[in-house]
Amino acid sequence: MLSINTCLSTDFVKYQNNIENKVVVIIDILRATTCMITAFMEGASHIRAFNDPDSCFQMRKDKYLVAGERDGEKLEGFDLGNSPFDYINLGVKDQKIAITTTNGTKALLASESAVKVVICSFLNISATCTDLIKENKDVLIFCAGWKGLVNTEDTLCAGMIISKIKDFGFELNDDASVLAFDFYKQNSSNILEVLKSSAHAKRLKKFVSPEKDIEYAAQLDVTSIIPIFEKDLILDQDFT
Ligand code: MLT
Q1: C-alpha of residue 73 to centroid of ligand 1, in Å
Q2: CA–CA separation, 180 vs 126, rounded Å?
Q3: Kind of pairing between the strands at 2-7 and 170-172
Q4: Pocket of ligand 1 contains residue 128 by CB under 6 Å
């Protein structure tokens, strides 16, 4: 049997082993992976992720659009914040994007030793699960969480992934996966409500009216695009 492990926040990644032989699924529903997937839906060329805003901003010199937030608020002077509507409204077709976010890019960059890194949200969850089954390798589901804390929206998405792949030769290999799966079973028909009542929805209220972002992020399977992270670039898997 193949194994599913779940990392419920960036702080738990240090306890994960054998990442180099696993497919890692990055989840940051509100809002980093939702935004990255949206960027490719809008025709972006590729994305580079950064841990710090200064390095990210420097990419302007190489004609990158620079995108980023800290604590949910758009970084000053950046072209894009971290709302999917920033990507939709500005128009990013054929653009190169440099991005840095509070948790999502941190999770991504912590996973670069994996055999494959896929970027998932509710927007592309079924396509991602089909790809995991096809890859036929052990899986680490990596929830970005919030500054080391667990959050409900990423955990819910992790549980949905588990529900979609567990009957295809995968077993739940840790209690974090059991918790995520149980949380999903209790809330499988309440996705939007879980996101609306999340701690991050409350944080976002300080800067934006998050309702639009939350409703958008709760949509299921609006695309089959699967962004993957390899050799420092995030690309649409179908164009690699
Ligand atoms: C994160 O990295 O935690 C999120 O992207 C934060 C946000 O976009 O509000």
Answers
A1: 9
A2: 17
A3: parallel
A4: no
By the 8 A CB rule, do 71 and 39 touch?
A: no
Query: Which of 86, 101, 105 to mutate for ligand 1's pocket (most ligand atoms within 8 Å of CB)?
Result: 101
Name the residue among 212, 188, 201 with its Cα closest to residue 151: 201
pTM of this structure: 0.97
Antiparallel, parallel or unpaired: β 46-49 and 96-100: parallel
Instruction: Assess whether the C-beta atom of 102 lies below 6 angstroms from ligand 1.
Output: yes
Using the atom order of ligand 1, give the atom closest to the CA of residue 144: 3
For residue 13, the one-letter residue type is V
Residue 110 tokens read as 């912590």
145 ligand 1 Cβ < 6 A: no
Q: At residue 159, what is the residue type?
A: G
Rounded to whole angstroms, the maximal C-alpha distance in the chain is 49
pLDDT tens for residues 154-189? 999 999 999 999 999 999 999 999 999 999 999 999
Residue 35 near residue 130, CB atoms below 8 Å: no
Could you write out the DSSP letters of every residue in 97-117? EEEE-SSHHHHHHTTTTSSEE
> What mean pLDDT do residues 38-58 have?
98
